[in-house]
Amino acid sequence: NHSQHHALKLTYFKVGKAEREILSRAAGGGSFPMTPWSSRLRNGILYLPNGEQVDVKKLKNSVRLWPDAEKGPHALHGVLARKNWQVVESGPTDGGLSISFLFNSTTDPELIQLGRFTQMTKHSLKSGVLTTEAILNGVPGGTGFHHAFNLPNRDDWFVGVPADQYWEIDGDRLPLNTWPQDVEPAQDVRQLTSLKDRTFEINFTGLRADKEGWVTALFYNPKTNETIIVRQKIDPYSHMTLWVPDAKANNEQFKDVGSLQPVAMAPGQHLGVPAVTHGLSTIERRFLSREQARALLNIPARSESRQPGHPPGSATVPSHPARGESRVDQL
């Protein structure tokens, strides 16, 4: 109903009679936008382009606090998904299905404090591929999508993200104000890496994209060959968050959850240009051999590229040759 308003969180899509649900319905699961900031904010402070500081902790209905849900003192990514979105279009399109939602900050007494902005989000399902398009217009900011998946018997699964760098975090799992660091063995998931007895909460950058600008990451189960593939256009999604939560430290509902999150805003980054952010990402479930899964990750490093945010003359993204040592947790 185009006249109705809804919260925006996709928790279910299914292709074919035999398909299982791949999106997690756990708290923090499903697929939803992280807008208008897509990373954690120290002490809940967001810096606007005019230099003004906004304490987002005061936006009670627009923020989730961290690590204490009541006291903070920090803020998690934006939770625009909780807001009222208007359905502007839905129905069959070109052999598939699509639905489009619009959020306008002028309708929200809290978020209008950040300025006038809109976000259009369109989910399209065709040939088993879910495409999510996000257009953020007005407030110069960052957006991202939180894609969380069901990974039955998670210890059987592997993950792969073609990332050469990551953002360091502190003891509160907040980004440090430093340049990205080259991945070390503890963060290196450029090869298929086992999730057995592992948890991850890493903000990756230095992503390797194909010639068309697509970055491909995946979860892979070698026992069943089931593969969950997440692709994102590197412009503007030049970062990706890998989240494999610790069920014991969080909640048992997370024990079989894993998340790959396209992100346009670097951790700790202030709101700034561009004024229009147009992001594309896709989700797909396939059955692949190990060799096929490996091949999706086999993207050469772009040694001459420079990471967004690096100052002129800074070091380029390094090209890492295959390591000589073997790792028991990689395929």
Q: What's the number of helices?
A: 1
| Oligomeric assembly | single chain
Instruction: Look at the structure and give the mean pLDDT.
Output: 81
State the share of residues found in helices, binned by percent.
under 10%
Poorly predicted ranges: 304-328
Overall radius of gyration: 19 Å
Task: Trace the largest sheet across and list its strands.
Answer: 1-7-8-9-10-21-18-17-12-15
Distance between the termini: 47 Å
The proportion of residues in beta strands is 35-45%
Structural class: mainly beta
What overall form do the CA principal axes indicate? globular
| Main pleated sheet | 10 strands, antiparallel
Element pattern in H and E: EEEEEEEEEEEEEEEEEEEEEH
Number of strand segments: 21
Write a structural description.
Helix content is 2%, strand content 37%. With 331 residues, the chain is mostly beta strands. It has a 10-stranded antiparallel beta sheet with strand order 1-7-8-9-10-21-18-17-12-15, covered by helices on one side. β3 (45-47) and β4 form a beta hairpin. The termini are far apart. Mean pLDDT is 81; it is low at 304-328.
Short description:
Helices cover 2% and strands 37% of the residues.
Topology of this structure?
Layout: E1 5-6, E2 30-33, E3 45-47, E4 53-55, E5 65-68, E6 72-75, E7 85-93, E8 96-104, E9 118-126, E10 129-137, E11 145-150, E12 158-160, E13 163-167, E14 181-182, E15 193-194, E16 200-207, E17 214-220, E18 226-233, E19 239-244, E20 257-263, E21 276-287, H1 290-297
List keywords for this structure.
331 residues; mainly beta; ten-stranded antiparallel sheet; 1 helix
